[in-house]
Amino acid sequence: MNTKAVLIVLGLAVLVATFFIDSRLTPVVGAALLLGALVYGWAANRRAADANREKAERATARQKAAETGPRAPDQ
How far is CA 55 from the centre of its chain? Predict the structure, then answer.
């Protein structure tokens, strides 16, 4: 299994365990797990956006170096 699947399974196991041990802990643990999932998702999307920006910058530099595209000078 990959890391995301392991984290999901562990989170659900903790939530179920707190429900059976002491139901007063379940809302607190559930809220903490939800916050953790939100932060993880935010960080993962931020890394993806940075990678996409870098890829676009490299493509733009290649295009300018080749002088191709709709605004290429006439030869």
Answer: 17
Please report, rounded to a whole number, the percentage of residues in the chain having pLDDT higher than 70.
87
pTM for the whole structure:
0.50
Give the chain's domain count. 1
Separation in Å, CA 11 to CA 14, 39, 41: 5, 14, 15
Structure confidence by residue, pLDDT tens digits, 63-75 = 888 776 566 565 5
Q: What is the DSSP string of 9-47?
A: HHHHHHHHHHHHH-TTTHHHHHHHHHHHHHHHHHHHHHH
Side-chain-side CA neighbours of residue 43 (13 Å)? 6
Write out the residue range of the structural domain in which residue 30 sits.
Answer: 3-55
